[in-house]
């Protein structure tokens, strides 16, 4: 453990990017509209799961290596035998309304940087998409840079439900996050894991960039956590199992997530967890990064102390996440403010309420180790008795 004084000095020097809110937890989430119809239909037409059985032959296999595909491919279409009638909800006209009021046309170098089009990429190009390729349904939410809608692809594309996320170019430029967005897209479009939200394609018009995302049928995990206060051991264990699996997939590709927290997690149609945001991910083959980013409560000691950090930051965050699932708040949260939170992190001031049983305590404690190398590896997380206990036999 380090002494307090140097930590206090470093805390004073810490710079958190302005694009990350210092109080990331808005209180009082409202429940999402009922998704029962959508749920039923999407069970049939759910997004591809690389671990699922092979789809019908004319459907490109999601497990096939990207480079081996020569022709542009649609997102996983519905089976050919039936003409699906899919509920996408009522469109509120928000895209046009917002587009009149918000954003400006971007020109020059910034425009070139944001001319993002997945039909133009060399490896595995998608069909050419425009806003006219979609029937727009109900609004799913509002993000920092624009709205998200539930949409369905129109003919000649096979009908497929997606979440279409809009981002205003001028606002991206204003925040100076063009590179970060490109990186997020580059990372996400190449990932294939059942617990990582798929990015099927992207396109742009003069003002906006559009991301075609896998539709997470059960919405935000954070809303569920706010609603229930905390999760049962079973539910927490299932989520941590899926997170550990997704993180081990990311780490095997030399991707460090660095921003694990409930707000960045969505829930799929079958209740499975989906990592949704890659804004802070780093593709770091071999090198250890030294930029401070991420969210207050989930920062590991090495980041608080402004030291070099690597993939072990995600193990720490997994421990914080597990604590928050079971107890309802992150372990080092301090209402007096950021400095106190940082101090508690640096001292690993970890306390458990009496109701937390021995097994989850053991796993959390093994993840929340001050020394990055001492944290339990993902391989060992995946065989921890508390994870095995709740894993379905067929998983
Ligand atoms: P940002 O990611 O820009 O920091 P954000 O996470 O608040 O901001 P978005 O990711 O744009 O915002 O999403 C806004 C809302 O839309 C989310 O809170 C969520 O409720 C909903 N949403 C986003 N993506 C999906 C998706 N793929 N499936 C279902 N709902 C989604
Ligand atoms: Mg988001």
TrEMBL record:
Q: What class of enzyme is it?
A: transferase
Q: Does the keyword Metal-binding apply?
A: no
> Do you know which Pfam families this protein is assigned to?
Pkinase
Q: Name one GO cellular component term.
A: kinetochore
Give the reaction(s) catalysed: L-seryl-[protein] + ATP = O-phospho-L-seryl-[protein] + ADP + H(+); L-threonyl-[protein] + ATP = O-phospho-L-threonyl-[protein] + ADP + H(+)
Query: For this protein, what is the EC number?
Result: 2.7.11.1
Q: Where is the Protein kinase domain?
A: 134-387
This chain's protein is named: Aurora kinase
What taxonomic classification does the UniProt entry list for its organism? Eukaryota, Fungi, Dikarya, Basidiomycota, Agaricomycotina
């Amino acid at each position: 453990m380090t002494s307090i004084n140097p930590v206090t000095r470093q805390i004073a020097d810490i710079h958190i990017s302005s694009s990350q809110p210092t109080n990331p937890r808005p209180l009082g989430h409202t429940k999402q509209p009922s998704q029962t119809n959508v749920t039923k239909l999407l069970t049939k037409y759910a997004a591809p799961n690389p671990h699922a059985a092979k789809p019908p032959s004319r459907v490109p296999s999601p497990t096939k290596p990207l480079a081996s595909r020569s022709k542009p491919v649609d997102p996983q279409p519905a089976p050919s035998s039936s003409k699906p009638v899919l509920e996408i909800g009522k469109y509120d006209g928000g895209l046009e309304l917002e587009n009149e009021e918000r954003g400006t046309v971007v020109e020059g170098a910034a425009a070139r940087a944001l001319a993002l089009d997945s039909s133009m990429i060399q490896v595995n190009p998608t069909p050419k998409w425009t806003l006219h390729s979609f029937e727009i349904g109900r609004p799913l939410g509002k993000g920092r840079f624009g709205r998200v809608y539930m949409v369905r692809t129109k003919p000649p594309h096979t009908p497929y439900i997606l979440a279409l996320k809009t981002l205003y170019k001028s606002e991206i430029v204003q925040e100076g996050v063009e590179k970060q967005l490109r990186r997020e897209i580059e990372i996400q479009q190449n990932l294939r894991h059942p617990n990582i939200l798929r990015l099927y394609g992207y396109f742009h018009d003069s003002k906006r960039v559009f991301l075609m995302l896998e539709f997470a049928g059960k919405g935000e995990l954070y809303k569920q956590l706010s609603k229930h206060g905390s999760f049962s051991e079973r539910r927490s264990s299932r989520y941590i199992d899926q997170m550990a699996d997704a993180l081990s997939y990311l780490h095997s590709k030399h991707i460090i997530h660095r921003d694990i927290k409930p707000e960045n997690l969505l829930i799929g149609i079958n209740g499975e967890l989906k990592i949704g945001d890659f804004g802070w991910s780093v593709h770091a083959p071999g090198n250890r990064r030294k930029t401070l980013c991420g969210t207050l409560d989930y920062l590991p000691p090495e980041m608080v102390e402004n030291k070099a950090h690597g993939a072990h930051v995600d193990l720490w965050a997994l421990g914080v996440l597990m604590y928050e699932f079971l107890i309802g708040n992150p372990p080092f949260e301090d209402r007096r403010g950021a400095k106190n939170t940082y101090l508690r992190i640096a001292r690993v001031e970890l306390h458990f309420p009496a109701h937390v049983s021995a097994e989850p305590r053991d796993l959390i404690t093994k993840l929340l180790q001050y020394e990055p190398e001492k944290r339990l590896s993902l391989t060992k997380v995946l065989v921890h008795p508390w994870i095995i206990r709740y894993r379905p036999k067929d998983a």
